[in-house]
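Annex B. Sample input.
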Amino acid sequence: MMQTLTVGLGERSYPIHIGSGLLDHAELLKDHLPRQRAAIVSNTTVAPLYLEKLQNTLRSVGISSTPVILPDGEEYKNADTLNLIYDALLANRCERTTPLIALGGGVIGDMTGYAAATYLRGVPFIQIPTTLLAQVDSSVGGKTGINHPLGKNMIGAFYQPQLVLADTDTLNTLPDNELAAGLAEVIKYGLIRDLPFFEWLEQNLGKLLARDTEALQYAIARSCRNKAEVVAADECERDGRESGGRALLNLGHTFGHAIESGMGYGNWLHGEGVAAGTIMAADLSQRLGWIGAQDVARTRNLFERAGLPTVAPDLGTEKYLDLMGLDKKVEGGKLRFVLLKEIGRAVVYGEVPEGLLRQTLQACVPFDQADGTTSHSTKPASGQVAGYQDRHD
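Annex B, continued. Sample output.
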């Protein structure tokens, strides 16, 4: 059965529909396509799987569509690829009433949303996420943007979609490492604000890895409900208090974005960077005396069971510090981290002693027991599933 949640933002509120076979349900889309025309942005991996189905669904209610097919991968989330969207919209004379539909994972959703926010100074935008990570995180909340060589997601806008349509059937074609990457964001919600959900994940992770439809729908809905509540309270991440705000959704991301940027976009999936970064955040939380070794081990165990890396690449301490200095949460030149007070409760904290931070950066990279040196690994070192190029966005 389909579940529908609402992101409560007043007159800009919108539904999230979650269920199986939703791509066949034109009635869910029709009210958001008033002019019988739309542009569908997808990529070379997802389009062969689902573009024709979506076009046929739209055609059944008299809506024509213009496809815009982009190259696949995080390394293409940049200004050059963004211009390919603008080129297609202009060439096809798309108007201010022409909605952009994002059909793909987080990269497609972020770029399509930013194009929608800026083309003709704003056109309607619909999210149809086809990866677990996009369904539980990036498609909800209105963060859009592109990467810059110096930092991830540093150029963008807050721009809410009209609708999110999460068809769980699209997860059947998702490679195992992409499914695992999505689970990193699912686990995050349990860690930052939902202890009962974290405990449910400990008991039901096997079902998620086996792609049990009921378990996946429950996890997606629970994750989206958590995010919707946070976004409704702090849409544009302006709550700078330690105890709350949208920044809490960035657990592991300060470290994780540094990993993605430092290793070169596309070499680590976003969820892989978040997983290793979350372990670094947990380690730092322990060094501050907030959580114990058992909590760190419990967190690490769940990520490892999901097939995710729990050891970060050794970029070098100074490189990490330099890359983290570009994090969006930096205020007054000071790094701010999302850290754990306990499993199920996170805070934003900007008073981390540099010595403790350096200890975490040195402790959480590969270590060669034979010669006592760190290893400058170019791939995730723990729990990694092979096949970087076999991505579903």
